Amino acid sequence: MYGEFELIARYFTRQPNDDGVLLGVGDDCTLLQPTPGYCLAVSVDTSIADVHFPAEAPAYAIGYRALAVSLSDLAAMGATPRWCLMALSLPEACEAWLSEFARGFHALCDSCGATLVGGDIARGELSVGVTVHGELPPGTALRRSGAQPGDVLAVTGSLGGGHGGLLAWQQGERDLDDPLLAAYLLPQPRVEAGQALRDLATAAIDISDGLLADLQHLREASGVGADIDVEALPLTRGLVERLGETGALHAALGGGDDYELLVSLPPAVVRQARQRLKALGVPLTVIGRLSSEQGVRGVPESVPSGWQHFHGGTP
Amino acid sequence: MYGEFELIARYFTRQPNDDGVLLGVGDDCTLLQPTPGYCLAVSVDTSIADVHFPAEAPAYAIGYRALAVSLSDLAAMGATPRWCLMALSLPEACEAWLSEFARGFHALCDSCGATLVGGDIARGELSVGVTVHGELPPGTALRRSGAQPGDVLAVTGSLGGGHGGLLAWQQGERDLDDPLLAAYLLPQPRVEAGQALRDLATAAIDISDGLLADLQHLREASGVGADIDVEALPLTRGLVERLGETGALHAALGGGDDYELLVSLPPAVVRQARQRLKALGVPLTVIGRLSSEQGVRGVPESVPSGWQHFHGGTP
């Protein structure tokens, strides 16, 4: 059994490979040197066991996913990830679990260019809060409020996998090679795609609460309506087989946890956007169009609305 | 019953009075403009109900205290508070509770010059994670590692109140005018004192784990030993009356949650340091001296060691 300081030292202190880290883990604060002339994008998300992820999920996936959820917010602004801080609470300090948790967390740090610069470990119900910091040139951030009538609506990757993977887990699926379970437990935050779309998209949001719920945030911020082509929705592989056609559609529209980007684009730049994302290995699919007529058309009624705490939404 | 978005809007979204906030709460990220040429001090702390504070404590105090704990880390670096993010999880969304919680949080924001720029609310066991950002000129941060043999050891404010207040709470005390309970539930982070000592102190740490435990961190980082004058320890008012002389001494040495600063100072600047802090209404008391002889002398044996999660230390 280790104390808090030993745990931090053992699993979460690595020599930062970032010359913006003036002083790393081990003092009262971390000292960071932001890039001159850039602005800072900051977000925090907390993942709670059996609310946001199954407590029995592999520790690797819990560490990876808690960071992915926060990095997805940076992706939606088009920011370049720099630094993150992690507040972990857990009922007991099991070394094997912590080692795997840290391995998942650091794996995503490495692939997204983020550095863990601070943390806090306490005893409590299993939960992980991650604060992320990204950078970008002033005036270039993708906001929710810039969409224009006439813009095309597009999504990265595929939809429904987050919700489908949750259901698969609940049905006993445990193979992380299952495409739905992988989408749910190891989502790939679209960090590079967000940066590539920074000068093309007029607005962006990440799909954490479900397509329709997040579209609503974007529509309200931009003051636009939308026509959706549900036939065009890119469904995650295996979704129809597991949920049937109606279930798959509902998962894609109303399920949460996809962590794809929903973006608006002037029609003239759609081809260019698709080419840039293709180079990154990320599909971009047009799913509708924005208009000055408020509301959403083209969506079947009785689709469950997105995930909201204290509302009892899906899942 | 409100949803997450309504809760955030209702209780935590205020017009930021800070022109460094380019985009406040309401998008995927907050956008911040750091002060050119300064570096950023960042820290996160999580406060969990019935681990770090009583679940039944007044909501005002829970909000205030969760922020105070994090601001204390900025104080210990000598950083000027700028921005904070709060991740709140709570079992149910009670409006009266949230309103009081937010009032306590914002009250301390206002008195310390911090702005709440982002947050996350989820359903779970009551806990509050607060990430704070402060700024300071490069090279001026107070670290744990700069203490020299021959330096004087001093503390701000008084000691033992945190632990004494916890015991008072457990004994049924509920009056926040009680000096011990106030020290425990409404600690004053020494933000101005930390800044005032930036060019005088050689090292600093905040006393969150208990004087001896935090002194050990400072000693290890600086490679020094210490002689303590226990007669000189400034005990919080009411501590001896409640705990007796031995209990009071143990609370001051080994109890946690005082959130005072422990600093090392060259003897020549002690008077100047005391004058600066006096102008801020903060006492500074010399409690010992550092030496090249490792270890700690002058402390009675059998003092409980400081607070550590997973070790079962005090309290």
Structure explained in plain terms:
Two copies of one chain form a homodimer. Chain A has 315 residues and is α+β, with helices and mostly antiparallel strands. Chain A folds into two domains: 4-136, 60s Ribosomal Protein L30, Chain: A; 152-297, Phosphoribosyl-aminoimidazole Synthetase, Chain A, domain 2, CATH 3.90.650. In chain A, 34% of the residues lie in helices and 23% in strands. Chain A has nine helices and twelve strands. Chain A has helices spanning 4-12, 59-77, 95-112, 161-170, 179-185, 191-196, 211-222, 239-254, 270-279; strands at 21-23, 30-32, 39-48, 80-90, 115-123, 127-136, 152-156, 203-206, 225-228, 261-265, 284-291, 296-297. In chain A, strands 8-10-7-11-9-12 form a six-stranded mixed β-sheet, with helices on both faces. Chain A has a four-stranded mixed β-sheet with strand order 3-6-4-5. In chain A, strand 4 (80-90), helix 3 (95-112) and strand 5 (115-123) form a beta-alpha-beta unit. Chain A is globular. Residues 311-315 of chain A have low confidence and may be disordered. The interface between A and B is large, with 70 and 70 residues. Strand 2 of chain A pairs antiparallel with strand 3 of chain B. Chains A, B: Mg(2+) 1 binds at residues 45, 120. Chains A, B: InterPro entries: PurM-like_C_dom, PurM-like_C_sf, PurM-like_N, PurM-like_N_sf, ThiL-like. Chains A, B: Keywords: ATP-binding, Kinase, Magnesium, Metal-binding, Nucleotide-binding, Thiamine biosynthesis, Transferase. Chains A, B: Substrate binds at residues 52, 257, 307. Chains A, B: Pfam families: AIRS (PF00586), AIRS_C (PF02769).
